[in-house]
Design a protein that fits this description.
The complex is a heterodimer of chains A (787) and B (241). With 787 residues, chain A is an alpha+beta fold. Among the domains of chain A are: 109 residues, no CATH class; 184 residues, no CATH class; 175 residues, no CATH class. Chain A has 24 helices and 20 strands. In chain A, the strands form three sheets. Chain A has a six-stranded mixed β-barrel with strand order 3-4-9-6-8-7. Chain A has a six-stranded mixed barrel with strand order 13-14-18-15-17-16. In chain A, strand 16 and strand 17 form a beta hairpin. In chain A, helix 2 runs antiparallel to helix 21, helix 15 packs antiparallel against helix 23 and helix 21 runs parallel beside helix 23. The two termini of chain A are 32 Å apart. The mean pLDDT of chain A is 86. Chain B is α/β, with parallel strands linked by helices and 241 residues long. Chain B has a single domain, classed as 3-Layer(aba) Sandwich (Rossmann fold), CATH 3.40.50.300. Chain B has six helices and ten strands, in the order E-E-E-H-E-E-H-E-H-H-H-E-H-E-E-E. Chain B has a six-stranded mixed β-sheet with strand order 6-7-8-3-9-10, with helices on both faces. In chain B, strands 2-1-4-5 form a four-stranded antiparallel β-sheet, covered by helices on one side. In chain B, helix 3 packs across helix 4 and helix 5 packs parallel to helix 6. The longest helix of chain B is centred in the C-terminal third of the chain and has 18 residues. The model of chain B has no long low-confidence stretch (mean pLDDT 88). Classes of the chains: A alpha+beta (787), B alpha/beta (241). The interface between A and B is medium-sized, with 31 and 36 residues. The complex binds adenosine-5'-diphosphate and magnesium ion (MG). Magnesium ion binds next to helix 1 of chain B.
């Protein structure tokens, strides 16, 4: 090994603490990049593979009742690859020990062979025997949540009749990846069931002998979805079609897509911020590190080493750290990505999970760290090479303090010599001070914005479940019922307050944009479910126009004053044209509101409601659920506590879970930055400090000169961190917002306070670490080889 | 860079060499016109008060620094006309340096410090032989921090001579040493001059050192005040400190 390489190894060993700290910071930047990219990719690929393997349909067409032969007509539509028909009905599952009934979906499986479309993945047990009409497959997630398995029985009410079934297998299906309870957005395993059973049996149960009520269609590659939808609608219109819809509007797929695209936005916005902060730090640290080698560079040049040889040597040193850190980050990214993938797989109940990172993700991470380290090294080497070796080898010219800093009388009177040294140095080297302040500020920014984001999630929950939704229970009906039901509900013992609601499924359009959702009719002055505006004031419902949530307004690119087209998908299916009158600050979902009676008038269905919000006496809740469950027409009863828990869960386990990793990474980066700043300041000053000690300064005084500088830089960095953090917080909030929930980017003082405390804590700890070294400084050796 | 012949009788020559640091009004005129000839193979001592420009002169003819005006030659090579890369080659092939503060690489052992130079020199002697020459054969594996100042300076000399330079520059090589160690270091320099036939330039504050030189150049205020040729050279051991 050449002596230079040996020097390199020993230098690395000597500065191992700092080298590791630097490598770690860049590693974390790369880790975020690789992990998030890997996750998004893998999720997408896995979904794709899952859909293909189990032949998920491209078009779903619900009807009231259509004879089997119609399927042949559908198969003739240009662009249609295959058609499957089935029966798909609602059911209520009774579980022993659970007061509120669980809404279920009963789906038919063909009597012979596997379904052409929408097959199921059998996780446990066996497929049903078509001859046995009481055999069912049960959705695995639901079964697990209630400890049910093959061999157990399940009782369910279908079309008014109660029946007992035998569970023979547990299954999952691509169309039920995301399974929210009725009337809710967040999935909850325990409150949504799917029952697969024999087609003949289900036809019998829903009086659909020889008929189907849902057609599934898959498309050829060249097919245009819109054209096929139109053709299918035309064919099915006579059979009570409510409108065919594409996979894009399929509930489970839509939420899954939302999550993936949310994660994609997050992964496009968050890791670059972290990587940029890491790269910036790497740049600063490397340049200051090489700066300290100035005399050695001069010496090597004096021996006749060429600039190229000297550069190569220092680049090797720098690259060991940068590339080492980047590789560590890649490995760590894959490892954390994989363990996250495991969580995601469980969460989405994918039967398999493909983890795959795109090569560009590695390449970006590695090249960014190489480039920033190289830039940090190159800028200094160029400067040093511009000097003659004679000058480079001189101990750094005593900085000229004469020109810039002439302290006036005030300073002289109030500051002692050590304080003046600190001040002079900071002012004398404004660029270095600036870079250090920006560096620590950037560290604080990532920490502050991460905390701000955490607070944002909490605010979503708080705003939705305490401010907006103040009910205890939500009741959903199978079909719209008469408004008199309000009195029936109010008459239930323990129910304190009832507020009716009418929700109709609809496609909402504006310009080129459309959104398949719901128009909710609320009472004029809602009390139990009351949308609020940005100022958190109540929004009164109006009959002359709709009020949209921020998310929906964004999706449709619509503003108050614009007109919204509401394509109702229920009853007479009218198309309404309504002005947008206000925007409500709803953070969960993408609802649209209108005054209840105005809605009914528009639908020409006066006095109808589809559900109600209730406030109840909590002491009597068990009895109340029991009563509600048995009320005719009730499809679902959801408790706010449960739906809140469900929303919390998607935030904690879905794309939102990334925020926890991010917060940890942010704090490590922050610490790395502060620690490196302290280390370098110490290295740059070691000789001066030893001199101070030699001429009789106490340890404390010498430490003050060093730590005073660090302290002032840290304090200056705090406001910078607040400003930068505010910007990053906006970015993160936008990145983490999905159609499911919007994270507000509002400024949370405690988040910034927390980050400031973390920076100060890191500064104190780093200060303590260098102070320990300072106390141990060997005055003689520090001075021995120098002037 | 073309190969230069070092056969001529004059190793170094300068004409009106000047060096100005900084700019007016704060300019420092370190050299104010130096004309000089140093015959090949001589041991030359540069004497003069601190700040008189000795190091500046040495650095320029050693290829470490650039002149502001005038010319300098090493044999047929005009140093003042060379590019940075050519100067690098000049230092690499011909010049050995010994600095006042040793300037050893702290993270390399004595032998490795010498190898740092022999590795890139065209015709070096083995690193151990160079250390042997300065009497440190037994300490080859030690790090600078494990050696005294005198020993470190001898390593620095071994490092400078190991490439078998044709010119050896020593800027106050004994400045940081006590008399005994200082004499030992001077002895090594004399030996190198005699054994390798290298032209040796030594800067010193200690006028007595002049006794061991072939030629003594007295410097003051950026100019040569006087050049004295010694009839007889004293042995380093005879020098008063
Ligand atoms: N890099 C430099 N920048 C500015 N002035 C310098 C520099 N190097 C030397 N000088 C000045 O040049 C003059 C000659 O210095 P030098 O050659 O080192 O003197 P000597 O070696 O004789 O003590 C001194 O006044 C010194 O301050
Ligand atoms: Mg000098």
């Amino acid at each position: 090994m050449s002596p230079l390489d040996r020097k390199l190894m020993r230098d690395l060993w000597r500065m191992k603490g700092q080298a590791i700290a630097i490598a770690l910071v860049i590693a974390l930047g790369v880790l975020m990049q690789v992990m998030m990219d890997g996750l998004v990719n893998s999720l997408d690929e896995t979904r794709q593979a899952y859909y293909e393997r189990y032949r998920l349909a491209d078009v779903f067409a619900p009807v009231k009742r259509a004879p089997e032969q119609v399927s042949r007509e559908l198969a003739g539509v240009p662009g249609v690859a295959s058609v499957e028909t089935r029966v798909n009905g609602g059911a209520l599952v009774d579980l022993p020990g659970r007061a509120a009934p669980v809404r279920a979906q009963a789906v038919s499986l063909p009597d012979f062979g596997a379904p052409r479309l929408n097959d199921v993945y059998l996780a446990e047990g066996r497929r049903i025997d078509p001859a046995r009409h009481d055999e069912i497959l049960l959705l695995q997630g639901f079964a697990r949540a209630h400890d049910l398995g093959p061999g157990d029985t399940l009782s369910a009410t279908m079309n008014g009749a109660r029946r007992r079934f035998e569970i023979v297998g547990l299954a999952e299906a691509p169309e039920f990846v995301y399974t929210p309870a009725p009337g809710e957005l967040a999935p909850d395993d325990s409150r949504f069931a799917v029952i697969w059973m024999s087609e003949t049996a289900l036809q019998a149960a829903f009086d659909l002998d020889g008929a189907f009520n849902e057609a599934l269609v898959s498309l050829t590659r060249q097919a245009r979805v819109e054209a096929v939808l139109d053709a299918v609608d035309r064919i099915l219109a006579p059979y009570g079609s409510t409108g065919a819809y594409g996979l894009d509007d399929q509930m489970s797929n839509r939420f899954l897509s939302e999550e993936i695209s949310g994660l994609r936005v997050t992964s496009a916005s968050v890791p670059p911020v972290f990587l940029a902060v890491s790269a910036f730090l790497l740049y600063i640290v490397i340049s200051r590190m090489i700066q300290q080698e100035r005399e050695e560079i001069g010496l090597l040049k004096a021996f006749g080493y060429s600039s190229l040889e000297v550069s190569a040597h220092y680049f090797k040193l720098v690259m060991v750290i940068a590339v080492g850190g980047a590789l560590l980050g890649c490995a760590g990214g894959v490892a954390t990505g994989r363990s996250f993938a495991g969580i995601y797989q469980q969460y989405y109940k994918f039967p398999f999970f493909v983890f795959k990172v795109d090569p560009p993700a590695f390449a970006i991470g590695v090249s960014v760290s190489i480039l920033s380290a190289a830039a940090g090294g190159a800028i200094v080497l160029r400067r040093v090479f511009a000097l003659t070796p004679a000058v480079a080898m001189r101990p750094p010219a005593p900085a000229d303090y004469s020109r810039t800093v002439r302290f006036g009388g005030w300073v002289k009177r109030h500051l002692d010599q050590p304080s003046r040294m600190v001040l002079r140095r900071l002012i004398r080297q404004p660029w270095r001070t600036f870079a250090a302040v920006i560096g620590i500020g950037a560290g604080m920014a990532v920490a502050a914005s991460s905390l701000n984001l955490l607070a944002g999630f909490n605010r979503v929950l708080a705003q939705n479940f305490t401010l907006i939704d103040r009910s205890d229970v939500t009741v959903t009906f199978i079909e719209p019922l008469s408004a008199r039901t309000v009195y029936d509900l109010g008459a239930v013992d323990g129910v304190i307050e009832v507020e009716p609601v009418r929700g109709v499924p609809a496609v909402l359009r504006h310009d080129r944009h459309s959104h398949r959702g719901e128009l909710s009719g609320l009472v004029a002055a809602p009390r139990l479910y009351r949308p609020v505006n940005r100022q958190m004031d109540d929004v009164r419902m109006r009959g002359d126009g709709v009020i949209l949530s921020t998310a929906l307004a964004d999706i449709l690119e619509i503003r108050p004053g614009d007109r919204l087209v509401v394509d109702v998908r229920e009853g007479r299916q009218p198309v309404l044209d309504l002005p947008v009158v206000a925007i409500a600050d709803t953070l969960i979902g993408a609802p649209a509101y209108i005054e209840l009676e105005a809605l009914n008038r528009a639908l020409k269905e006066p006095g109808r409601i589809s559900g109600a919000y209730l406030r109840i006496d909590k002491a009597r809740s068990e009895a109340i659920y029991e009563t509600l469950k048995d009320m005719p027409g009730v499809a679902g009863v959801s408790l706010k506590a449960e739906s809140r828990a469900a929303v919390e869960e998607i935030m904690d386990e879905g794309a939102g879970s990334m925020r926890f990793v991010m917060t940890v990474v942010a704090f490590v980066i922050t610490f790395g930055i502060v620690y490196n700043s302290a280390r370098i300041a110490y290295a740059e000053r070691a000789r001066d400090l030893a001199s101070l000690r030699v001429i009789g300064f106490t340890r404390a005084e010498a430490a003050f000169v060093l730590l005073g500088e660090l302290g002032i830089i840290t304090v200056l960095a705090l406001p910078v961190g607040v400003a930068m953090g505010w910007g990053v917080a906006q970015l993160l909030a936008a990145g983490f917002s999905t159609e499911l929930y919007q994270i507000p980017g509002a400024f949370v003082p405690s988040a910034f306070g927390g980050a400031a405390l973390a920076v100060l804590g890191a500064a104190v700890f780093s200060g303590w670490l260098v102070r320990r070294d300072l106390d141990r400084i060997d005055m003689v050796s520090a001075l021995k080889t120098r002037e | 860079m073309r190969q230069i012949s070092t056969d001529g009788p004059v190793a170094f020559r300068t004409e009106g060499l000047t060096k100005v640091y900084g700019s007016e009004p704060a300019a420092v005129h370190a050299l104010r016109g130096v004309d000089l000839e140093i015959p090949k193979g001589e041991l030359v001592v540069l004497l003069g008060p601190s700040g008189s420009g000795k190091s500046t002169l040495l650095n320029i003819i050693g290829g470490l620094d650039r002149a502001s005006g005038g010319h300098a030659w090493y044999h047929g090579l005009e140093l003042t006309a060379l590019s940075d890369a050519q100067l690098t080659q000049y230092r690499r092939r011909h010049v050995g340096f010994v600095f006042q503060f040793y300037n050893l690489m702290a993270s390399l052992t004595a032998r490795e410090n010498v190898e740092l130079v022999t590795e890139i020199a065209p015709d070096p002697m083995p690193a151990d032989a160079a250390l042997e020459l300065v009497g440190l054969g037994a300490r080859a594996g030690h790090f600078p921090s494990e050696m005294s100042g005198g020993e470190q300076q001898r390593v620095a000399i071994a490092r400078a001579v190991a490439k078998q330079p044709t010119a050896l520059f020593c800027d106050e090589p004994t400045g940081a040493l006590d008399s005994t160690t200082g004499r030992a270091v001077l002895r090594v320099l004399c030996d190198v001059n005699a054994r390798l036939g290298a032209t040796v330039l030594i800067i010193t504050h200690n006028a007595a050192t002049a006794g061991m030189a072939d030629r003594v150049i007295h410097f003051a205020d950026g100019r040569i005040r006087e050049v004295v040729e010694n009839r007889e050279r004293k042995a380093p051991e005879e020098i008063a400190w």
